[in-house]
Amino acid sequence: MNFRPTDYKLRNVADGHVFEDKGWMLSDPDSAVPSLVRAEYANRFFRPRNDLKGLYRYAEWLPIQRTLRHSHAPVTYKSKGLASLLGMPNLYITFSGYWPRIGAKMETCSFKETEAFSVCARLSRREKRILVVQSAGNTARAFAKVCSDNGIPVLICIPQDNVHDLWFTKQLRSCVKVVATPFGSDYYDAIRLGEKVCQDPRFFAEGGAKNVARRDGMGTTLLSAVEVIGRIPDAYFQAVGSGTGAIAAWENACRLAADGRYGQNRMKVFACQNDPFTLLYDSWKAASRELLAEDADGLRRRSETILAKVLANRKPPYSLAGGLFDVLTASGGDMFKVSNEQIVYWMLQFFNKEGVDIFPAAACAVSSLRQALDEGKVSPEETVMLNITGGGLLNATRHGFVQKTPDLILSPDLPAEEIIAAVSGLF
Q: Does the predicted model carry a pTM greater than 0.70?
């Protein structure tokens, strides 16, 4: 079928300025302060499209030019096992991963597929430049799969310590190239590497949290939940590295409230991090809009000790207008920190009670829900959405997997011209 591009404009969160998206705009060029921009859709009503498959059921609220092959949407269901353990009769789990028994078929086992299928569908078919994606792991796997399946050239930058996350159920096509930063580096180093590559006009940055397609793709988790629940939940729980998924959920809660059929947006946003990498947690608890000053080497060492590696981000969208600080403030939410031991405990409990394995970051969110109950920040009777951002690895890899090794290993400290010369030879 012929797909008509979604009709939308962009709005500057800081000052309300509305402007046209000229193709790949990540910010308002006329803005006087750092700010996210949001997509404002011509269709202000939430109308899933039953004529489209997978994630693209939500195309009316995705800033896309086309649809791509092999997409899947998150699946929401009312919990029984975990709900009984926690004493929460209105607990809903939104699961992004590979669990065919409930209809969840994301082969990368991560909700990062939602952003990859949205971002890549925002690309024009006429785009000749090479997309650059920086990742701590799950995002790399998602973009690699989506781009491989759809023949989209992409350069993925990832820390070498995290390349174990580059597993796939089949061999990748040659349009996907991976460059790793050396052992001992982290996600921020991968970001720096990608930024230097993008100084060459043949490459362009995906944009991270600033990309409206990334956020609105991730925001489909809430759309999935509201389809099942019938209204905006009272509380939302997610583990965060950047906080982009939590921001995205809040933005869609605002859209749903404006629709008028799903209740007012009183959804409290609760986020959590894996202790001791708690940059966002520490800044929030200090009531600081600005991220607390942290030693880079110290943060690298902390990132090495946590189980949920994907939650270690030294450059999160926290302070700018529309960022995580604003979302937590507006929603009356809060942050929690979770130890490695708590993560292991809740990985086991979730498997025992729900019947599927989950990733450490998802278990971090489960633990934060337990903490919120214990501290009285949510009541057992409230309608709660628990965003399980990754799981089903045992199901997805039961027939084996293929490991992608980096095509190059480059230090982000090298001059940009050396990095560009080395990377250009891959394509």
A: yes
